[in-house]
Amino acid sequence: MMTKALLNLSPAQLRIAEAAFWLALASSFFLLPDKLTLMSQVLIFGLFAVSLDMALGYAGILTVGHAAFFGAGAYAAGLLAKYGWSEPLSGLVFALAVCGALGYALSYLVVRGADLTRLMITIGVCVLLYELANRLSGITGGTDGLQGVVIAPVLGLFEFDLYGKTAFGYAFGVVLAMFLLVRLVLRSPFGLALRGIHDSRKRMTAIGSPVEARLRMAYAFSAAVAGVAGALLAQTTQFVGIESIGFNRSAEVLIILVLGGTGRLYGGMIGAIVYMLVHDWFADMNPQYWMFWLGIFLIAAVMLGRGGIMGALSRFVRTGKAR
Q: Cβ distance 257 to 273 under 8 Å?
């Protein structure tokens, strides 16, 4: 619904565009056989950005510490696999439950405050969890990362291989399923209520909407989806680095979301595709100064594309129809 409104497409055109988007991603399996590891990470970070968009773009909860849930999900799945249970799908469910519970507990702090308070709380939680992971090096591996993670074959049939084929197929299936779940939630009355709260919290309170309760549920659901993304990264790489829970990871996913467009269903996915492919291209082109060129690209993209890539696409479609 939101994507249709933004791009001014008919229902049939919207279905075709969505099918083409996911088919293009799936075709990477055949067209980019040497880049499957990168494409798996593109999918994972796209899901991570979508989880942030639900909190920030749809519910209006200002957060810059979302890596706390991404890293918690990664450690939950990694530790579960290392110390007793290596079946991947149940590992995702475990990470979803852990991060959903963590997000709901923290939501009582996050939802009650003003924007600046939320900003500080989310940063503080992210920094605290990072330091906790560092201090508990006997369990988490500390700065060396959690090693020895072994994931069983997917559905008992598909073993994870060195070429990344199973990892890509597994990541694609999980990301698509989670994206459809997020879309279903955002198109439900609950999702419409979140849009109303984002637009005017006072007005939603005046009509009797349980604003704080809905924001808490939105934050918990967003945390759960971020946890699944983190678990996916841990399972497909069979390693958990401490940077997965660091503030830099939170800043990176925020950049991805702003690049794609906040409050737009596909903004996180498209932002992840563009950011990570450009990131990889600049790193190959100029290994010494690639961050300089990446910074120039991001500044130019934000200045030229108001509303991110999705906003630019929306304006392009409207201009084309006007002509």
A: no
